[in-house]
Amino acid sequence: MTTRPELDVGSHLVSGVAALALFVVMAGAFLTAEFPAPQGFPEGANITASIGYAMFNLDFGNVPAESFLVAFLVIAIALDAALDGAIILARRESDGETVSLLADGGRELKRTVLGGTGTDADHPTDADDETKTANGRERDTGGDR
Q: Tell me, what's the pLDDT at 78?
């Protein structure tokens, strides 16, 4: 037999009533607010150019663009913060330590793919292959001495 769910009126009741009261106050403020009539822009006004002139503190624009400039800069800062957050969240961590595939030049990935004991001597770089012989001595490449 199933039982009816019971309403939990513990600690959630106070926060629920507070949220409802805030909603009523905000709805009342929005519904009773009066806004002026839209003004628009002059015919042929170039808003983009006015924002650009305002960025460099030049008085060539035909539209006062300081309010646009503030909004533009706030959005730029918010997008920059979002990008920084995405980079931080995208980094991988292993045992509390940040791990990056290319921080060691790809040596760890190369060891994983090719196998080996984990030393760089097992897998010399391409530059080492060109200048060293099989016994490990430098080969004469014919350059100036």
A: 97
Q: 144 pLDDT band (50/70/90 cuts)?
A: low
Residue 62 · residue 46 · CB < 8 Å: yes
Three-class SS state of 136: coil
3-state SS track over 76-106: HHHHHHHHHHHHHHHCEEECCEEECCCCCCC
CA dihedral over 132, 133, 137, 138, signed as positive or negative: negative
Q: What are phi and psi of 92, to 5 degrees?
A: -90, 150
Pair 61, 41: CB distance under 8 Å: no
Q: What angle do CA 141, 144, 145 make, to 5 degrees?
A: 100
Instruction: Assign 123 a pLDDT band (cuts: 50, 70, 90).
Output: very low
Please compute the mean of the pLDDT values over residues 21-41 and round it to a whole number.
93
For the full predicted model, state whether its pTM sits above 0.85. Answer: no
| Residue pair 92/98 in contact by the 8 Å Cβ criterion | yes
Q: What is the dihedral of CA 106, 112, 116, 117, to 10 degrees?
A: 80
Chain centroid to CA 37: 39
